[in-house]
Amino acid sequence: MLVKRLIAYFRRHDWSAVAVEMLVVVVGILLAFQIDRWWEQRGERMQEVEYIARLTNDIESDIPIIERAIELAKLRKGMADMLMRVAEAPATAYEHPILFIVAVHQAAFTYSPNLTNHTFDDLRATGNLRLLREPEIKKALFGYYDFDQDQNQYRPLQFLTESRHFELAAGILSYDQARLVQDTWYVVVPGELDNFDDSHLKPDEVRATVQRFVERDALIDWLPEMRHLQNEQLLVNEDRLARARSVLVLLRDYSEDLN
What we know:
By secondary structure, the protein is an all-alpha fold.
């Protein structure tokens, strides 16, 4: 119909009618493009809201894991400090004998939190990072996850430090003491030793363990390295926690703006 009308207008040299018809066509096309773009933007904003919610949930789930890593690093740093005190003054082991025994066994344990990075990896893999319109959020996310990735290069060194401790501490605990630690606390966490009744520990066995410990010169020389390991774990996870909390604030504030 449009083509027939245009042909008729051309034959009559009715240029004003031709112009009106062409204007209607152009406006219709532009309007259709605008509507399509509006729907596309609307879909992108809905995706952005979903991604922000998922990222928020990921960071929220990370924080208690990082806090646990900090608590464990503090506990094990304290164990290393105790072993260093016992090395200088063996009698201090008898003030809290079960802590001394556990420290010999677990002072070099490390715990590296596994962050929830599924959403961020999805954003990068699909190219959907463009959906996040706030540059500060993208910068904070890259800083948070890249920092965690950078720490992976130090894990082999951590494993070597742990392994070295296990090698040097082998045989210091008696079989009964080793079984006590292994069967009662697979991994000791803060507060677990506070109410432990260590009155049933055999004093002679504890004294023998202390003696074996102070005679293990290589282990005593290694204690500062072990303490350094735990201090590094503590500092890294405190930094990681600060980054997580900062990103979480940005995500929550932006989520409120979107809603």
